[in-house]
Amino acid sequence: MAPMVEMVGKVTRSRYDELVAESLDMLEEDTRCQFGLGDAALELEPLRGHGGHLPLDEGDQGVEESLRLFADEIGLSFYTVRTHRWVAAQWPAEHRRAGVSWEVHRILASVPDRFDLIGNPPLSERTGRRRWSAEVAKKLVGWKTEEVLVPVTSQEKIEAIRELARDDEAVAAQVATDFLRRPEVAFKAMRDPEARENVNEAQFEQTKLEDDEFEEDYDNAFDVGDDGERFDDPARIVHSWRKSMEFSDLIAVCQGFIAGAARLVPKLRGHEFTDTQTKVLENHLEKIRATADWIETAAATGQVDLDEQLAQLLRGQ
């Protein structure tokens, strides 16, 4: 009876060993290439910053400019080039370990005693051998394992935040609140039409809620005195002032539009609009008419909610 051939996956054990050996050779070459890329970026812009992960020489805009140009020239993202530069800086050539992947060097790059550590790989629970792997290195430094990468690029960080807050409205709301307290973040967020519309709708609902709560609290506390007459509390007066200021702001918006139109329209004499310009202007005029109707309805009925058709129009859909 012929002995049973040991298989690994769909290949024999001997072929598997050949594939491992060939792959290790390719991995060694890949590691040299990755460090070569980092060394080139490091030569272009030596690392001078201190502290933090992937420092980029704060205050020196020329560094980022050079690295972005370099990244464009070689067809990689700026973030990839920046990461390779930083890893190369953390691992001078004399401390890089042959037979250990660039990924392991990247994971260990922030460890203070990395130069000694990389020469003493821990025992792998999976293979039973002392050999560095990304999973072993991540476990040693406290990162998540099982191929869950620690986000480095902007897109990876965005996806990580989305995933963490995906099914938890309370977390999402707190994160959004914390971020919007940063003026530069709020400014960029409000450039997104849908985000701006949602914030505006939330402001309307919040104002209405605050007004209702104020009236209820006021009536409970100050509405009727012992003699049956209303009591004019200063809080009600201040609240009335706030509403008057909001009305004044609305009037100022209308007056600003009128003044701007009065200044610009006469300058259009003799101007011949292209078909594209005409279409753009028509779209904006339609939005202006719809907004004016919305204001008029709100003033007449007190209903400030956007109906779906108007919301889609203002979104440009």
Tell me briefly what this model is.
Pfam families: DUF6192. This protein has 3 domains: 7-141, no CATH class; 182-231; 272-317.
How would you describe this structure to a colleague?
This protein folds into three domains: 7-141, no CATH class; 182-231; 272-317. Helix 1 packs across helix 3 (78-90) and helix 2 (61-74) crosses helix 3. It starts with 6 loop residues before the first strand and ends with a helix. It is built from 13 helices and two strands, in the order ββααααααααααααα. The protein is mainly α. Residues 50-59 have low confidence and may be disordered. Strand 1 (7-8) and strand 2 form a beta hairpin. The radius of gyration is 32 Å and the shape is elongated. The chain has a two-stranded antiparallel sheet with strand order 1-2.
Q: Which parts are unreliable, with pLDDT below 50 for 5 consecutive residues or more?
A: 50-59
As a percent range, the share of strand residues is under 5%
How are strands sequenced across the largest beta sheet? 1-2
How many whole angstroms does the radius of gyration measure?
Answer: 32 Å
H/E element sequence: EEHHHHHHHHHHHHH
What separation lies between the terminal Cα atoms? 75 Å
* Structural category: mainly alpha
| Overall number of domains | 3
Task: Give me some keywords for this one.
single chain, 317 residues, mainly alpha, 13 helices, 2 strands, 64% helix, DUF6192, DUF6192 family protein
Q: What is the element layout, followed by pairings?
A:
Blueprint: E1 7-8, E2 11-12, H1 13-44, H2 61-74, H3 78-90, H4 102-108, H5 114-117, H6 134-141, H7 154-164, H8 169-180, H9 183-189, H10 193-222, H11 234-264, H12 275-301, H13 308-315
Antiparallel strand pairs: 1-2
